[in-house]
């Protein structure tokens, strides 16, 4: 057993996973726009299939879009170039406090995932409570 080689394997495995995950996030472009009453996320996912895409909301108001693009296996093909990214992808988006986590929709069409997060209406301003002022008499208390 080559001790330095074994140490290199142990140390570099988490680093490689971190780099792979960062690349997966960086190579999944997204636009986020605010429209009246909602936030809309448009995420490019060319080559993905609906069964490969997962949209979740974490407890801390974070929208997570993840999945995996798979290349169809072709045993007779010999690639001259492979530039299209395949494999796992993930994007995380913090949601505002007024996001309605019960009103989120997702639609996948022509390689673009559109996630719409409705916003809760702003709370109505609290009205001041009016206390009746009586003339004379005493107040108990």
What would your notes on this structure say?
The chain is an alpha+beta fold. The protein has a single domain (3-119), classed as Immunoglobulin-like (Sandwich), CATH 2.60.40.790. Helices cover 17% and strands 38% of the residues. It is built from one helix and seven strands. It has one helix at residues 3-26; strands spanning 30-35, 38-44, 53-58, 62-69, 87-94, 99-109, 112-119. The strands form two sheets. It has a four-stranded antiparallel beta sheet with strand order 1-2-7-6, with no helix packed on it. A three-stranded antiparallel beta sheet has the order 3-4-5.
Question: Tags for this entry?
Answer:
alpha+beta; Immunoglobulin-like; 141 residues; 1 helix; three-stranded antiparallel β-sheet
Give the secondary structure arrangement, pairings included.
Blueprint: H1 3-26, E1 30-35, E2 38-44, E3 53-58, E4 62-69, E5 87-94, E6 99-109, E7 112-119
Antiparallel strand pairs: 1-2, 2-7, 3-4, 4-5, 6-7
**Can you name the CATH architecture?**
Sandwich
Q: In percent, how helical is the residue content? A: 10-25%
Overall strand count: 7
| Multimerization status | single chain
Order of the strands making up the biggest sheet: 1-2-7-6
Helix and strand pattern: HEEEEEEE
Keywords: Coiled coil, Cytoplasm, Stress response
Organism: Musa troglodytarum
Region (Disordered): 119-141
GO cellular component, one term: cytoplasm
